[in-house]
């Protein structure tokens, strides 16, 4: 199966075309943010203040990269466990956040918000942090520098590999995969 080419910014209409299990290559700008940065973003929203980044039709990658080696844009950049952002994600999805990139399961509240807003949850390759870093062309801290590796960064990526885990209709690859495995096992198709 050939990977779908995605460029950012990414529209709701395009997000709704993706299906759980699709593989994609992202090119363009994505932002990094983990739980400490998400907490600050939601605190700004609670105060009625603007966000330091425009999340509309954007992707946020849940990562805390290591410092870059000389000549590199970024250090190791593997995904962080996504459920840590679940308390904050629906607020950002309501503002038009189009995609989240991480690893692991998401809460039903996040999935419901994704369906309502036409957003997608992508999985990045856990354990492939050094390989992922090679797809990051540039990295620049845009806010919350005091958070160190958890600062929000603007990344330029080229052919950044992801898999659609949960699509905009709520179809979940983790559930689909288990179901298909159990059916194949019951049918004797597995050794």
Q: Look at the structure and give the mean pLDDT.
A: 91
Distance between the termini: 24 Å
Q: Biggest sheet: strands side by side, in what order?
A: 2-3-4-5-7
Instruction: Tell me the number of strands.
Output: 7
Kindly state the percentage of residues in helix.
Answer: 25-40%
SSE arrangement, N to C:
EHEHEHEHEHEEH
Largest sheet: 5 strands, mixed, barrel
Radius of gyration: 17 Å
- Report the portion of residues in β strands: 25-35%
* Gross geometry: globular
Low-confidence stretches: none
Class by alpha and beta content: alpha/beta
Structure description:
The chain has helices at 12-17, 35-46, 89-94, 108-117, 129-133, 173-186; strands at residues 4-7, 23-32, 59-61, 99-102, 120-123, 136-143, 152-166. It is α/β, with parallel strands linked by helices. The protein has a five-stranded mixed beta barrel with strand order 2-3-4-5-7. The longest helix is centred in the last third of the chain and has 14 residues, at 173-186. The protein is globular, with a radius of gyration of 17 Å.
Which secondary structure elements does this structure contain, and how are they paired or packed?
Layout: E1 4-7, H1 12-17, E2 23-32, H2 35-46, E3 59-61, H3 89-94, E4 99-102, H4 108-117, E5 120-123, H5 129-133, E6 136-143, E7 152-166, H6 173-186
Parallel strand pairs: 1-2, 2-3, 3-4, 4-5
Antiparallel strand pairs: 2-7, 5-7, 6-7
């Amino acid at each position: 199966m050939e990977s779908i080419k995605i460029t950012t910014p990414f529209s709701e209409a395009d997000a709704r075309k993706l299906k759980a299990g699709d593989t994609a290559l992202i090119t363009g700008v994505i932002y990094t943010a983990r739980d400490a940065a998400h907490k600050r973003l939601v605190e700004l929203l609670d105060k009625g203040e603007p966000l330091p980044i425009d999340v509309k039709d954007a992707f946020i990658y849940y990562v805390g990269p290591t410092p870059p080696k000389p000549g590199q844009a970024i250090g190791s950049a593997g995904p962080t466990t996504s459920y840590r952002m679940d308390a904050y994600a629906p607020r950002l999805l309501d503002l038009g956040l189009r995609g989240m990139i991480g690893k692991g399961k998401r809460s039903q509240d996040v999935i419901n918000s994704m369906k309502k807003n036409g957003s997608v949850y992508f999985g990045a390759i856990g354990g492939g942090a050094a390989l992922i870093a090679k797809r990051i062309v540039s990295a620049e801290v845009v806010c919350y520098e005091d958070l160190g590796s958890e600062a929000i960064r603007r990344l330029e990526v080229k052919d950044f590999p992801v898999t659609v885990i949960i699509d905009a209709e709520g179809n979940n690859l983790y559930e689909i995969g288990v179901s298909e495995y159990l059916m194949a096992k019951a049918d004797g198709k597995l050794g």
